[in-house]
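User: Modeling request: complex.
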Amino acid sequence: MDLPYPCLMFLADVDRVSAKTALGVAYWRPDACVGQLRLKGSEVDLGLADMSPAAAKAAGARSLLIGVANAGGFIPSHWEDVLVEALEAGLDLVSGLHTRLASLPRVRETAERLGRRLFEAREADPRFNVVAEGVKRTGQRLLTVGTDCAVGKMYAALALTKELKARGVNADFRATGQTGIFIAGSGAPIDAIVSDFVAGAAEALSPSAAVDHWDVIEGQGSLFHPAYAGVTLGLLHGSQPDAIVVCHDATRTAIDGLERFPTPSLAEAIDLNLRLARLTNPAVRAVGVSVNTSRLSPEAAAAYLNDAAEQLGLPCCDPVRASVAPIVDALLGGPARRDAA
Amino acid sequence: MDLPYPCLMFLADVDRVSAKTALGVAYWRPDACVGQLRLKGSEVDLGLADMSPAAAKAAGARSLLIGVANAGGFIPSHWEDVLVEALEAGLDLVSGLHTRLASLPRVRETAERLGRRLFEAREADPRFNVVAEGVKRTGQRLLTVGTDCAVGKMYAALALTKELKARGVNADFRATGQTGIFIAGSGAPIDAIVSDFVAGAAEALSPSAAVDHWDVIEGQGSLFHPAYAGVTLGLLHGSQPDAIVVCHDATRTAIDGLERFPTPSLAEAIDLNLRLARLTNPAVRAVGVSVNTSRLSPEAAAAYLNDAAEQLGLPCCDPVRASVAPIVDALLGGPARRDAA
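Assistant: Request completed. Predicted assembly structure:
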C-alpha cells in the first residue's frame, strides 16, 4: 500500500485510548505527519501544529489520516464535514476503520468528483482470504500477545524488530492492525478479515523464510477479552510463533471498558497463550514480558519489573522507559549471543 | 430469510463431508427438496430423484440450492453452467458459500436479465456486525462444541431442540452455519462474519429471553482445529453457554484433512472448552457427549458409548442411532424433571 504521506493527522474528538493510531504513527513515523486536526472535545495533543485541511495542504500534506481506533471502528456522522473539507482542500483520505469511506455517500461523491483517492487499511488484500493449512513454515516467528487490548503489543513488536535489526539479525515487523499498517506500509488487517480466514491470513502474512530470519508479528486483542479472543486465537494459531512476548499495562486491573472482566495475572496469560499456541507449534516458548509502566513512578516501575521478572523467571521491560534488549537476549539465547552478533 | 422452497438440491461432484449441507437439509427439511442434481464424480446420493433444472421446475421446485460446504467456501468455475441452466429454467439460486453468486458475472447477468433472485446465506445481516459487550443475558443457553469440524454439532443441536420441545420446554434452535440457516430459515453465518464481530454476532443471535427459555446454539469448528479455532472461541464467548455438549466422531483420529493434527480426547475437549467458556459464564457445565458411531457395529458403538460415559461421568449418546434424551435429562436436572414436565 503506497500511502500518500505526509498527512494531516485527524484526532477527531476521541480519548487517548481511541487515539492510539495517531499516537503510534506520530511516534514511529514522525516524517509522515505535518500537523494535527482536533475537534472540540479531543483529549489528545501530538505536539504537532493544529491545522485546517487547507493549511496542511499548503504545508505539503497529501492526505488526511483518520488517527482513530474506536470500538466498532465506525465513522460518526459529525466527522463527515471534516472529511469532505479535506477532499475539497486537495487531500486524499486514509482510514483504517471498519466503516468504509466509500460507504459514505457525501465522501464518495466528493472524492469521485475531485479525483481524490480513498485508502482503506481495513480492506484486506484478497491473498489473505485463505483457509489455514497448519503446515509448519521455515524461518522463526515472534508474536506479541496481551493481557488486554491497547497494552503495547504493536509498540513492543516494533521495538523488538528495531533491536534485532540493530544486532544485525534479519528481521521484519509484520503489521496486523491499522496503526501497524500505517507505520509499515503493508500488513494484514486481521480483525477485519472474515473469521474463517483469520488463521490463514496470519499464515500468509509471515510466509516461509530463511532459517535465521525472524518475523516479529504484532498481536491483536487478548485471549482474555470477551469480544476479541477469537481474533487473538486465530492469529496465534496461524502465526505458529516460536516465541511469545506478553504485553501488559501495570496499572490496569480490568479489561478496558469492561469492568466486570479482570485482567489476568501475567502467569495466567503466559500459561494460556502457550497452551493454545502449542497446537500449531509445540516448541513455542515465552521469552519476555513488555509492561507499560507509564502511570507508575520510576521507583515503582523498577520494583514492578523486578518483582515480575523474579516471579516469572523472564526478562520484564518497559520498552518506552528503557530497552527491550534483555528480551532479545533471551530470544537469541542469552547475552553471549549478543557479543557474537 | 424467506427461502424459495422447495428446491432442487445441487450435490455437484463433492464427497460426503463436503455434501453435509445437502445431507442436513434433506434430513431435517424433507419437505424442502424435490430432487437432486449430481455431477460426474459425486459420491453422494440423497435417495431423491435425479433431475435436470427444467424437470425440477416442472415438479414444483422454486430454486436450486447449492448443498455443498467445501473448505474455503468457493464455487469452482465448472459449476457455473449448472447455475446458469437453473436460472434459465426458472429457478432462483440459494448458496451458503463464501464466494458470492453475485460475484460471478455470468450468474449475475443471467439473474438480472431473467429477474431471478440470488440468496446468499453467508451474507450476514448487518445487525450481527457488532462488538460483544460481555454482559450476561437472561434465559439459558446450550452450545454444541466439537473435537473437529463435521462431527455432528448441528445435528446434535437440532435433536436436543426437538427433545426439549417434546418435553414442553420453551426452546429455540439457533443456526450459525449455512446448513442450519437453510433448515431454520434464519441465523448468523458465524464463519463469514468479520472476525472483530464474531462474539458480538453470537450475543445478538441469542438475545435475552425468559428465564426458563433455552437457546440451543449450533457450534462451529473446534478449539483443536488449526484453521477455525478462533471462530469457535468467538462463538463460545458470545454464546455465554450455561451448558455445553461435546460432539465427536468415534472413528476419527485426526482433524479432517489435516493428518498432522490428532483429534483431542473427549476429556481434553471438555476441559479446554470449559476453561475458555468460563470467561463469559463461570457457571458453565458439560452436560453430555454426542458421538457419531456410524462406522462402528451396533455392539462396538454401545461399548464405546458406555466406556465414554463411565470415564467422563456424563451421558454419551449417538443421536442418530438412539435419542439425546439422557443428555436432556442431565440438562434439566435428571429424570425426575422429565416426569414433572
